[in-house]
């Protein structure tokens, strides 16, 4: 039979406890029975919320540590008879009072739980030594403390319970039905107003992705989160709970505010705990709704920007962070109360481990606790979802700490993060599988698991990847890019995209105000010099100065010719006959451009070539002469047979084909440099290919650039080998110190 259940709640919650052994009586190995340990006198027994089966529950409060422990009916029955002293008499009285099927082993189990959680009197025989041993065991070394606490450290700043008592009337007003209806009305109005200006709202958000915007965003977050925590505190006071502390927690070294409302566990009404858990989000949603309404009504200016940040922070943090039940924030406690499962994470993980082992091996073990079918499904969904979330969360944290610190320390912290929070839990679970090997039988679950494992291994190790994919662009064989000769401003675009131009035709006219100013100054100086020459020629006394003026005039004429030639070069002309193609989207009068900027291309009317980019991990599998197919993004075009003609031996510093860059909608992840040229984030190598035949090429006289994907036949490679090659490439790239 299942023994008495005690479950921890609140800070430091304990999982379901099942302890073996015996204190005396049955299973005592013939030893003399010992009396049950005496309970501490300061413990408080409080009524708890209705259990899942509709029965009552009880909670023990440890006021010295602020911890709560939920009791099952069996545990309550035993504690009611605890004063009998001896285990057999405790069981006899409890069974007589409740008719529950209790045994002496249940007393043993309950006593061990009470001792383990320091709920018994300290003057019991041997308890002083036990407490000292527990204290020594709880001490951690510096490395262990840093490992567990650099992710989350809580620093209490104030004990606000006294002054929060004076705000209790405000809490009653805020958390009432009229206030709820008012919040719903505000949110409805906010959604309506922002829906009418949605494009403007999104554009405002993206325009503030700057350092200054980050500062404003942080200030708005501080305000919103301070009011969020006040919401929790006022709701707790609304229902008569104490607020033990408020302060700052460091979450992955990022400061966040917190409020200790663990006293809410004393409430028997689950709905009141739901109100306390959701109070912070309700306050933030109210702030977000009010700020959104103000944003929609205010004119452009500092006030509108300020309320926009407040609205953005309130909506985003509430919906993306606080409402997420997979993190131990408000959404977690709300979900726990909604499905009626306290200590959801601990009990959910225990249920998930049991379900995983039963699914894989069919051990036919009893579940860690009996739950209604719907509740069990909800708990299992939470457990598996939390595991998947934690995997990506800890992996993301590892990447974050790697980039936050210098390389050696970042690599060390990232490795510890992955090893401690991902690898070690997996190894512990595999260890449990190994311990249960004697219980494993060749049943349906085992056969299914072996079949799935065989398929996964086959997919990983059997070479089945027989080609290499590369993003590519088909373009004319003769294609020349147009660049500005010097930094200048566009005055006029003289050719339209797709327009035929002849060699020497002007395509883009540029201007340089500084150059025009210098030309004007030289022309003015020439005019003055010529006037002086005319005046000096009429005076015989000044004949000696004429030679000086003539020399100055010649120098200024030569300087003017140079400036005019430079201005003439600012007219970008077509270098050959062809079609003007691929001007950048922002090419328009008034745009300043540098010599590295591509203004477009002049493409010949016949012939084509293909330029592709291959990842470094796939480079060794690519050989000159290999054949494949080029599939364009245009589904109306047939694939083109191609052959590899050349492969670059060095990685590309920039993408010569901007259409393949991610910022232009292409498949290659890249970011612009100072000259706005796309720079690939990962190592890619240029590959040049040619069509095998010209039958499927664009018709003569209608040249165009076609983007697509090239698939080249290559030696088959397994997924495991490919993954190892990519991982090795990353390790080599990041190993330089």
UniProtKB/TrEMBL annotation:
Transmembrane domains' residue ranges: 137-155, 175-194, 201-223, 243-262, 274-297, 303-323, 379-402, 408-427, 447-464
Membrane topology summary: Multi-pass membrane protein
Keyword match Electron transport: no
Boundaries of every Peptidase M50 domain copy: 219-297
Cofactor annotation: Zn(2+)
Pfam family for this entry, one: Peptidase_M50
Keywords from the UniProt entry: Membrane, Transmembrane, Transmembrane helix
Family from the record: Belongs to the peptidase M50B family.
UniProt protein name: HlyD family efflux transporter periplasmic adaptor subunit
Species: Tistrella arctica
